[in-house]
Amino acid sequence: MTSTAPTRHTVVPTEAPALLLDGITKTYRSKAGAVEALRGVTYHFVRGSFTAVMGASGSGKSTLLQCAAGLDQPTTGHVMLGGTSLHGLTEVALTKLRREQMGFVFQAYNLLPSLTVYDNVALPLRLTGRKPRREDVHRVLDQVGLEGKAKRRPAELSGGQQQRVAIARALITQPAVFFADEPTGALDSSTSRQVLSLLREATDRAGQTVVMVTHDPVAAAYAERVLFLSDGLVAGSLDHGNPAQIAAAMSDLER
Amino acid sequence: MFFLSRQTVHRNRSLYAGSFVALALGVFLLGLAATATAATVAYHGPAADTVVVKLPNADPPTTARVVLSGEDASGLQVVLSMVGVISGFITIFVIASTFAFAVASRRREVGLLRLIGATPRQIKRMVLGEALVVALAASITGAILAQLATPLVLAKASYSELAPVKLEPANPWVPLAIAVTAGLVVAMLGARSAARRAGRIGAVDALREAALEPPRIGPVRVVFGVLVLAGSIVLLALIRPGTGEAIFPLAMFTPMLLVVALTLLAPLVVPLIGRLWAIPLVAWTSVSGRLARSNVVAAPRRSASLAAPILGISAIAGSMVLTLSFAADASTATIRETVLAPIVVTAADDSPDLRERILSTPGVAVADGAIPLSLIRTDRDTADLEDAEGIDPAITTRTRTITPLTGDLGKLTGKTVAISKEVAGFGNYHVGDKIAVTFADRTSDQLEVVAIVKDALDVNPSLFVPTELARQHAPAATPTRWFILPAEGVDAAALTKTLDERLAGTGADAVPAEEWEQAQSEGMRKANQLGLILLLGPAALYSAIAIANILLMGSLQRRHEFVTARLLGATPAQIRRMVLWESSLVGAVALSLGTAITLTVGLLIRHAMTVGLTDVPITVPWVTLLSIGTICLLLAIGAALLPTAVILRHTRPSAALQS
Ligand SMILES: Nc1ncnc2c1ncn2[C@@H]1O[C@H](COP(=O)(O)OP(=O)(O)O)[C@@H](O)[C@H]1O
Ligand SMILES: [Mg+2]
């Protein structure tokens, strides 16, 4: 795995990174004992980049994403989002940062089942106290290919459509960083392609930063860089890999 | 956030319907108690029967109206205030646990809102906003129902033992406003703690697969729980010999406080006892018992909410039933100890030559026929109607136990009075003090206290006056009961028979003392039963609905879980069994705590009331107590099982895939 030699310094950031992780560790404590999910991750995500995070199940991918997004506190280390340190922020400040700067897409579509598609998408704006403009909502719905579905409820949509609603909801606030955890985990390959293209577009067109956890090499190939995680540590990375190369790197890692 | 509140009502309609029903019924009960109380306050007795007593020493000097026949609505008023207290308590209790439950069931939804940018404050506002809408609708509905039901209840209450008069509905606005306000305040208090808890739900909760609550319980809750527990232990310590009449309010409030303490500590206590009860369950069943145990133990807060109404009503009803039964036992022993004569003659009101007939019967040594009368005892600022008897102490002390604690009954002649210890306590009277009284003939006088005697209120009145004084002020009164002592060597049974024959046609009866004592105790138990039905009836009905309500809510919320389990290969029967064991487990835990409270309070009360008495019977109302437990358990199981069965019948496993 030649390309996995420390590549952290190969991409020299031209400006402040969109997201910076500095020495993140995370230990879960429970009655059953302590689990070291992350054991010291330092990495910066360049503005406008699309990074895939891969690793075996239990290697700490989700934990990394949750710490990076300020959903959970790292045990040590700190996270900077666009120049703001998340350390020591109050819950309210974190929430505001989250709704203004971050968008989320998860494997479970996480839509509110009682709201229509339109209301689900408009919800983040309403939460900030802004009245959503109709044309904005319809624009993002068009963008994800859901024109004409605004009045439906999530239960009346297919899985891929629900996931696109979730992406539209993340798009509406024009966040700086997208966090996606296995966004295609529950989708078939053609709907997966649509969803991944949408994320790709976000970086290409709007210069948004995407961090996506996945275990699917095909999905990872949409990113310009793949970051490999193993036992809570960064085990290497691969730039502009095709699915076959990524799969090979993965199986190398698991060996 | 109001936009969201409106939208989520539909989704969570079973939760809202549950909270609505619980609160509307609570306000209905409170409203009814309030309008009925207003009717009793508005009632004024007939003028002919009313004595106006001057209270010149009160500050400022005033007058008091006393209805001589005792026929007023004050008995009903006392009962209504107690009904109000019990219903109010149960309502607060049920509402708080219902709202807590509603929030606990929506953990994921709240987590999701937090994830996409709702601040804790916005979440709190959302929960409070929803609660306000539900509370307003429910309180007004409850008040309207109460107003509609008031004439019915007053018609039932009129001419009853508690209010032997005709009651008319009074102006409803004030009582109903009180009930609606109480409902709103109760709901918002319940919602406030639920909202605070909702505000603490984190964004990650949307991502964690299971909607499991954190196992830790808040330190504030523990501190409050321990404080309330300490408070109830203080009250328990007060239940001891010598507490006197205050023992009954204690018997009512102590269980309430214990219930609150145990509910606060429930997230600690419920899993513990749940585990204990689950041991046989897990041994007997295969997978369903094990699943039920995990569900109860792993979600202590949820289980605590489900257990709360069962714990509340079983502890309060159980304690009152047991306390009253033990009180009747103590009375029975007191009656037995007080009556020395072996024969009792009970007379109708008018049998003028009874005295002659009894005294002329051969074999009668002593006949104690006291003259019953009512008089008004006036204190500095109160005037109370008291029962009294005109007696000849030389006779009466031979047929009944009248133990002077201080003073000398021999001095009971002229303008004097002997008082029970209870009355002495009320007025802080001592031997030699003068008591101002007003007789039925509306003359007033000052009577000197010559003795304070031991309470034996089931047989003896509060005051004894000399026979002549009684005759003078109540010339028409005749004895209604005679305690008869046979002469030396005369067989009591034979004398009873002779007396009965001689009294034939007068409406009077001679019976052995044991038989009379028996009848007295039975009468007392019957009266207790009526009191229990009045006091506990509404609260029990309400609790029954609340128990069914919260378990119904619980099962309806679990549609997704059941369907997923079906998808994984669980048969409907397996799921039903799991729900059956789960609700039984929650019921068993709640009932064990309720039993512990009942036993503690009951035994302490029994000890307090029977000290100094010998030969006290033990009557445990098993049927009533077991019925309370069984009904609670059946309701809980039924209300959990029924919706489960319906859900299982109407959904296919594939529904789990549609999120
Ligand atoms: N809330 C939690 N409590 C305890 N342990 C956890 C928790 N979340 C994750 N873990 C543990 O941390 C490790 C990493 O988990 P995760 O980040 O979810 O892995 P991945 O997403 O790569 O599969 C695993 O061993 C997992 O069991
Ligand atoms: Mg994961």
Report on the architecture of this protein.
The complex is a heterodimer of chains A (255) and B (659). Chain A is an alpha/beta fold and 255 residues long. Chain A has a domain at 7-105 and 178-254: P-loop containing nucleotide triphosphate hydrolases (Rossmann fold), CATH 3.40.50.300. In chain A, 34% of the residues lie in helices and 26% in strands. Chain A contains 8 helices and 10 strands. In chain A, the strands form 2 sheets. Chain A has a 6-stranded mixed sheet, sandwiched between helices. In chain A, helix 3 (117-127) packs parallel to helix 5 and helix 4 (134-143) crosses helix 5 (159-171). The longest helix of chain A is centred in the last third of the chain and has 18 residues, at 189-206. The termini of chain A are close together. Residues 1-13 of chain A have low confidence and may be disordered. Chain B has 659 residues and is of the alpha+beta class. Chain B has 20 helices and 13 strands. In chain B, strand 5 (371-378) and strand 6 (383-391) form a beta hairpin. The two termini of chain B are 25 Å apart. The chains are: A alpha/beta (255), B alpha+beta (659). The interface between A and B is medium-sized, with 32 and 26 residues. The structure holds adenosine-5'-diphosphate and magnesium ion. Residues 61-62 of chain A line the site of magnesium ion (MG).
